[in-house]
């Protein structure tokens, strides 16, 4: 990254720097990494699967008789593909008997990686090898964006703040329990999935994939809205005395005049799974093991590191080491295990920038947002 002219993202009068990723050293640094990831290195099988899924691509025949394919790869991955003194590129070329042309850093977003060879098979092999290395590098990058469902209705924020006050009053003496562990009430949300978007081209593609996924998934919602209750506390580890993430679960609401037939959590599960699967298929979202875990995080040890406006304690090229110690949630679970955070009406889905804050709403900076109503496709 050019430290004198970094990429920026303006929201109102605030300017956020888009961090460059050191793909060989960086670690997962999402504030809720416990919920989805436990990987300091890439899962090679998953990377191979993602690379092979993109195996259908155009290959042109040149007048010289050679074959050629070209595609965009973010410049953040160039060094990873070239290797020390060009060793990695030469190895790939030798293994696939193809020629791999990688643009110079700073050449511009319009420059593509080009693979040429004497046969379609050699060109295909060269491109797939490059795609596999890119996916391996991407899995090591800190996520930059995520898809979420806001849970910031006034009734939920009020109940959450009351929960925070009572926990600190009743359980403040428990090991590790402190105010900094709590989520900000204006940022309460359900997470659908995360992604590492490395440049403007990938960000535009992600917005398009997000729009298609939500439109396709919303077809099964007859009213364009789901209403569920956020109630009960849960955690991801086996030991309640050492918890990193404490979250609220989802239950069906009681019948009401507005919703005489209560919605079920499975309806939301189907919605978010469909959105995630479609975005994974489009190559923009990271794969999860199984279905999306539906929850609203209320306490997280990663929040101890947060620094408004950018990734916690992270500078370009310097890996962030996630905290490993947990806090004792046993007393909280005993006293507040069935806590009711209120009813949540789910009306829209957001694609947002991680480690950011909208100065007007206090929520994450939004790249795209779509209401669930009125999006049904014919």
TrEMBL record:
Keyword Transport applies: no
Residue span, K Homology domain: 65-135
InterPro entries with a match to the protein in the record: AKAP7-like_phosphoesterase, ASCC1, KH-I_ASCC1, KH_dom, KH_dom_type_1, KH_dom_type_1_sf
RNA-binding as UniProt keyword: yes
GO molecular function terms noted in the UniProt entry: RNA binding
Pfam families: AKAP7_NLS (PF10469), KH_1 (PF00013)
CC per GO annotation: nucleus
The entry's keywords: RNA-binding
Gene3D superfamilies given in the database record: Cyclic phosphodiesterase, K Homology domain, type 1
SMART domains (alphabetical): KH (SM00322)
GO biological process, one term: DNA alkylation repair
PANTHER family: ACTIVATING SIGNAL COINTEGRATOR 1 COMPLEX SUBUNIT 1 (PTHR13360)
Protein known as: Activating signal cointegrator 1 complex subunit 1-like isoform X1
Naturally occurring in which organism (per UniProt): Hyalella azteca (Amphipod)
Species classification: Eukaryota, Metazoa, Ecdysozoa, Arthropoda, Crustacea
Gene: LOC108677807
């Amino acid at each position: 990254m050019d430290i004198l002219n970094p990429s920026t993202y303006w929201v109102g009068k605030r300017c956020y720097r888009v961090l460059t990723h050191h793909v060989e050293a960086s670690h997962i640094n999402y504030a809720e990494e416990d919920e989805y990831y436990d990987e300091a290195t890439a899962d090679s099988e998953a990377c191979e699967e993602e690379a092979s899924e993109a195996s259908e691509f155009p290959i042109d025949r040149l007048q010289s008789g050679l074959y050629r394919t070209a595609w965009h790869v973010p410049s953040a991955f160039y060094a990873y593909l070239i290797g020390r003194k060009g060793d990695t590129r030469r190895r790939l070329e030798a293994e696939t008997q193809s020629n791999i042309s990688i643009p110079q850093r700073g050449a511009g977003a319009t420059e593509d990686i080009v693979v040429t060879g004497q046969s379609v098979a050699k060109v295909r092999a060269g491109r797939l090898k490059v795609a596999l290395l890119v996916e391996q590098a991407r899995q090591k990058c800190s996520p930059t964006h995520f898809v979420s469902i806001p849970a910031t209705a006034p009734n939920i924020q009020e109940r959450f703040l009351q929960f925070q006050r009572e926990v600190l009053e009743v359980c403040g003496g428990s090991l590790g329990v402190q105010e900094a562990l709590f989520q900000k009430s204006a940022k309460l949300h359900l997470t659908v999935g995360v992604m590492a978007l490395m440049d403007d081209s990938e960000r535009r593609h992600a917005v398009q994939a997000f729009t298609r996924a939500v439109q396709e998934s919303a077809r099964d919602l007859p009213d364009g809205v789901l209403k569920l209750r956020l109630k009960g506390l849960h955690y991801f580890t086996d030991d309640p005395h050492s918890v990193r993430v404490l979250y609220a679960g989802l239950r069906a609401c009681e019948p009401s005049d507005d919703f005489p037939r209560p919605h079920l959590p499975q309806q939301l599960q189907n919605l978010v799974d469909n959105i995630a699967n479609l975005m994974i298929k489009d190559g923009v979202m990271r794969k999860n093991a199984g279905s999306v875990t539906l929850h609203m995080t209320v306490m997280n040890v990663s929040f101890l590191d947060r620094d408004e406006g950018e990734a916690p304690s992270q500078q370009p090229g310097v890996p962030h080491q996630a905290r490993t110690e947990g806090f004792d949630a046993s007393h909280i679970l005993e006293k507040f295990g069935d806590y009711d955070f209120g009813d949540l009406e789910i009306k829209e889905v957001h694609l947002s920038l991680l480690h950011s804050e909208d100065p007007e709403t206090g929520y994450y900076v939004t790249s795209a947002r779509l209401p669930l109503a009125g999006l049904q496709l014919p």
